[in-house]
Amino acid sequence: MSAVFEVNRLRKAFGGLTVTNDVNLSMAPGDRVALIGPNGAGKTTFVNLVTGNLRPDSGEVRLNGETVTRVDAIGRVRRGLVRSFQVTRLFHDMTPAEHVGLAILQHSGRSGRMFGNFLAMGDVMAEVDGLLGTLGLRELMHRKVGEIAYGQQRLLEIAVAMALKPKVLLLDEPAAGVPQSDTARIERALADLPPDLAVLMIEHDMDLVFRFAKRVIVLAAGTIIFDGSPSDVTRDQRVREAYLGSYANAGHAA
Ligand SMILES: Nc1ncnc2c1ncn2[C@@H]1O[C@H](COP(=O)(O)OP(=O)(O)OP(=O)(O)O)[C@@H](O)[C@H]1O
Ligand SMILES: [Mg+2]
Question: Which of 5, 72, 113, 209 could potentially form a cystine with 34 if both were Cys, beta carbons 3.0 to 4.6 Å apart?
Fold first, then answer.
């Protein structure tokens, strides 16, 4: 299948430290990719570069065949490249309904409307209701985000991302900070994502990685050292040395 998302020879250095070192990556619709690697490997930086939150030193990002390297972050979202953040960036005084409603308005180009009015817009609220229902958040729709559990906030981030109608979704540690008891709900939300959406997930929880991913990419010190199947990644010598040693040695199978 042809690529919906392509990164060619992407490079970024902070001072003397190269954190993105000639990274090439391509995804097709429906891909389920896990991006893993040690702390500081450059995973979040990679997402910041491709989404336009950070400017690369060189290299190219393509979406649906169009070069977007010079398109700003909002323009990339509009073209279907949506990300979530490693640490939530929700507004604690706003409700889930307001977050998702605003995202829907932004996507449909109606964000100029008076904020608050959309609660009375039937079409928007139907979509808000559907999205929050899918993620098990309907009952909390009108509560303040500051009052809901962190796991639910992370689910809300996925709802907000989906409201932007992505073709490519980049999730930066969607289960980070979530108590073990709630990770199953996040996992279910990931499993329920539309089949034709291309998803790249950064994650440290290897059990979650192996249940989610059909393909695993390993980044170490800014360089991709592995791109292949979950069953091969635990056997790869370089990966074992750089990151997965203890996991693989503990006898986990993909
Ligand atoms: N704005 C910045 N300025 C300078 N150095 C930075 C900046 N952002 C990140 N770095 C450095 O780049 C390297 C990669 O960081 P990055 O956050 O991308 O790693 P990561 O793989 O996401 O790690 P983690 O698993 O801990 O989230 C680190 O050494 C970090 O300190
Ligand atoms: Mg990170």
Answer: 209
First to last CA, the chain: 25
pLDDT at 180: 85
What's the pLDDT score for residue 112?
58
Q: Is there a contact between 174 and 200 (Cβ–Cβ < 8 Å)? A: no
Q: What 3-state class would DSSP assign to 202?
A: strand
Q: Is the CB of 45 under 6 A from ligand 1?
A: yes
CATH number of 5-89+166-249, picked from 3.40.50.300, 3.10.20.740, 3.90.550.10, 3.40.50.2300: 3.40.50.300
For tokens 């069953």, what's the residue? 231
Average pLDDT of span 139-146: 96
SS3 170: strand
Strand partners, 61: 7
pLDDT band per the 50, 70, 90 thresholds, residue 254 = very low
**Judging by beta carbons within 10 Å of its beta carbon (0-12, 13-18, 19+), is residue 74 exposed, middle or buried?**
exposed
Query: What distance in angstroms lies between residue 14's CA and the mean position of ligand 1's atoms?
Result: 9
Q: Is the C-beta atom of 19 inside 6 A of ligand 1? A: yes
**Torsions phi, psi for 61 (to 5 deg):** -120, 130
Cα 93 to Cα 194: distance, rounded to the nearest angstrom: 30
